[in-house]
């Protein structure tokens, strides 16, 4: 209970300091649920914090699913995107039958026109990223995976420069290099000899691949067509992921058999689908639109704090010294990457 209280207090304190907006109060001195909802939806910082918190819980849930529940990564990914596709399809139907048919018509017209590029970024940022993360968590501890994900802001800045010629200042280039040094410290498990001997663990390799994919995906969100709703955009991403993963799912079932749908498996898939799969995707897409990819990416450095705390509470996993030092190095690099030039 004390640990949980400390974690909650830290999260609330951080949220208050990072969020500069506040919900409006009506004439009676009360704040309506609608006002709170609009405040949250217009606060990019809070949306990014909520996203990272859900991702942190996702890491722990996926670790349990791949460990104690023994769900193969491809099957867990497939069940996640199957559930998400069904849920979003229901929302599409509700939108249609509640009189907002024009929104659906506009969405499908845009999806037909831009389906290939949207499907490609969906596979990159959802299907492959999620599967790589699951493979990484099967092979390694949550703290290592979480610390490596903090290099993503540097990947976002680098991808933005390469793909769209986003301006990369000297400070951003220096910060990117510092982030790489911090990541290498974690990769080497604190021992340079591991790097010299190329002793890279399977978990590290999977996660580094996942970081690159989601960093590029975050930059590519900007090619989303104007007029496409949040629902339509997310539906296309998860549908493309489901189609892409289907043959891998069939292959894995033929090889290993279908996972028994026990209450634990159903519970894990339900949480992963509703929290990290749908809510976090909505929050992140919106946060990137409000803040821009570079500024939104910096919030990912909260991942080791949140996931490390949850893993400590639930799994009993602890940080090694190189996790802490690597995290501090990465955070210092991120501060340079996102630093604004003085006017």
Please characterize this protein's 3D structure.
This protein is mainly alpha-helical and 343 residues long. It has one domain. It contains 15 helices and no strands. The protein has helices spanning 2-18, 33-41, 44-66, 73-97, 101-139, 142-149, 152-164, 170-187, 192-196, 202-220, 230-256, 263-291, 293-297, 303-314, 321-337. The N and C termini lie far apart (47 Å). 45% of the residues are buried. Residues 1-25 have low confidence and may be disordered.
Key descriptive features of the protein:
343 residues; 15 helices; globular; disordered N terminus
- Count the E strands: 0
Distance between the termini: 47 Å
Tell me about the biggest sheet?
A: none
Helix content: over 70%
As a whole number of angstroms, the C-alpha radius of gyration is 20 Å
Which segments are poorly predicted (pLDDT under 50) over 5 or more consecutive residues? 1-25
Average pLDDT figure? 81
Beta percentage is: under 5%
The ordered H/E elements are: HHHHHHHHHHHHHHH
What sort of overall outline do the alpha carbons produce when their principal axes are compared? globular
Number of helices, counting only DSSP H or I runs of 4 residues or more: 15
Structural class: mainly alpha
Number of domains: 1
